[in-house]
# Entry
Amino acid sequence: GEDVEQSLFLSVREGDSSVINCTYTDSSSTYLYWYKQEPGAGLQLLTYIFSNMDMKQDQRLTVLLNKKDKHLSLRIADTQTGDSAIYFCAENTGRRALTFGSGTRLQVQP
Amino acid sequence: NAGVTQTPKFQVLKTGQSMTLQCAQDMNHEYMSWYRQDPGMGLRLIHYSVGAGITDQGEVPNGYNVSRSTTEDFPLRLLSAAPSQTSVYFCASSVVGQSSGANVLTFGAGSRLTVL
# Structure
């Protein structure tokens, strides 16, 4: 989606932290989402954050939201090889569908 | 629960042929949508529906038709296939959470379409 931007690729070593970044343009977005896509599969929801929150933590995942800069990030602590996948951020505005970014491919090296 | 079921998983068409990608959900979700996924472009919304009998266009609707005669089914029709429609197609359904307000999509496994 042209309104949501992500870098295309990130490579980290197993055990390190991964940070995936996303910028969006619609300031009226009420929720922002992170989805994960494993090879040959559909997307699965990882987590989401309400727009009036700055941070949300869920086990190894930390989501940071900077509404002023329209910047969203996903931090994965202690990254494992099983975390290798494509990660999409997404926003929803008025309609009942989401606008997705282009996806960031995370490669975890042993 | 099967969730969201898409058929077929793979299809090869010749330019000009028509076909329908099927999508069915058994979660009684109000909202359904179709996306296409192309390398480096993420998912782009084709059409969506907020309930039976109601559909609307997304970002890239040209060349595709949809209908929603039941809550469960949301087929995507390619009227006259073109090579530019070679892609992976995902159907999703959702309902806005009563407590959270979040619109959490459940995706099907995808349908890979090649148009020669």
The longest strand of chain B covers residues 42-51.
